[in-house]
Write a structure and sequence with these properties.
single chain, alpha/beta
Length: 337
């Protein structure tokens, strides 16, 4: 196959993971502050490969995959299937491009593909809907304007969207000569699937459980109305699995999977408590609470995450009957105990 971007470079982004024969981690470049997303290449018994979460699409990441496959002695023709944990651009992005290149099936949950349509299909109105939603929750107009332009930047990272072969909760999938069961959870992304290999006590956990950082939990219009509840229920389910080694979407593989689920549950309870204490002092809109929780120096990308996460926690406080949402005469909303 012709290489569109010139000569290859020495293999730097790919490493064989100790303790798991035939699995490789590929660090695919993405934007600050995460810097890379983990993709995994699993060697199949017939000499082909499965790719899990190929990363966002741009000319640079396309080149990284040419270099990666060359460094492993492979070509795009060796790709047997592309498996996605969820629909976010840093995971789904290159899957449609790879499918066009190879004809390989793309596996993801039906719910996750539906979310991709809501967010990224050509007819999607999310670049307008989400900033308007934030505006009703107190975000200043100049920031919602920046958010509108920001949302448009993702289209190139996921085009074309793939055709999918669905995989659902509880279904078994053969990858890398092992059998993995799909475990569907929500919160970070509706329809998120982790893949658990009980014979080997390993899990490909995407962004459901991350070491060192807390996965973003977002309340967005037209999506899961109770994302934090969904996420915490998912953590309880995942924490019940016997896992010796976890392969996450960001940061490094880790062995403290169960402990990490407990830490993340405690983290969100602490955040709920902090928000409750702030509302006890005085009612506030979501944007003011967002600034209180996360500061006022966030770039547009991180502000979107922070605002959506603030709203997710507020919705959980409403569900628990700790707080309630009220509407101002101008149509904007605020929250109070």
């Amino acid at each position: 196959m012709n290489r569109p971007y010139g000569r290859g470079i020495p293999l730097k982004r790919t490493e064989e993971i100790p303790v798991t024969e035939g699995m490789y981690r590929v660090k695919v470049t993405m934007s600050f502050p995460l810097r890379w997303v983990n993709s995994y290449v699993l060697s199949e018994p017939d000499g082909g490969i499965t790719i899990v979460d190929p990363g966002p699409r741009n000319p640079g990441t396309e080149q990284e995959w040419y270099d990666t496959l060359e460094g492993l002695g492979l070509t795009f023709g060796d790709i047997r299937q592309i498996v996605l944990t969820h629909h976010h651009p840093d995971h789904l992005g290159l899957s449609g491009w790879m499918q066009q290149m190879t004809g390989a099936p793309v596996r993801m949950s039906t719910r996750s593909r539906q979310e991709a349509d809501v967010m990224w299909r050509p007819q999607s109105s999310m670049s307008t809907t989400l900033p308007d939603y934030f505006g009703r929750h107190g975000m200043p107009e100049d920031m919602t304007g920046q958010m509108h332009e920001h949302m448009k930047t993702f289209i190139s990272q996921i085009t074309p969207l793939p055709g999918i072969t669905p995989i659902e909760d509880g279904e078994w999938l053969d990858m890398g000569g092992k059998q993995w069961v799909a475990v569907e959870t929500g919160g970070h992304a509706p329809g998120h699937i982790s893949f658990y290999a009980p014979e080997f006590l390993e899990i490909l956990c995407g962004d459901a459980v991350l070491p060192q950082i807390s996965p973003n939990i977002s309340l967005q219009p037209g999506s899961d109305p109770q994302p934090l509840q969904s996420y915490m229920e998912g953590l309880h389910r995942l924490g019940g699995l016997h896992v010796k080694q976890a392969y996450p979407g960001h940061r490094n593989p880790f062995s403290t999977f169960t402990e990490r689920t407990v830490q993340l549950l405690a983290h969100h309870e602490e955040r709920l408590q902090k928000m409750t204490e702030q509302l006890r002092e005085h009612p506030a809109n979501a944007y003011d609470l967002c600034v209180h929780m996360f500061g006022n120096r966030l770039g547009t990308h991180q502000l979107r995450f922070a605002m959506s996460e603030t709203l997710a926690h507020l919705q959980e406080l409403i569900r628990r009957e700790v707080a309630k949402q009220e509407q101002q005469p101008d149509g904007t909303f605020y929250f109070q105990i």
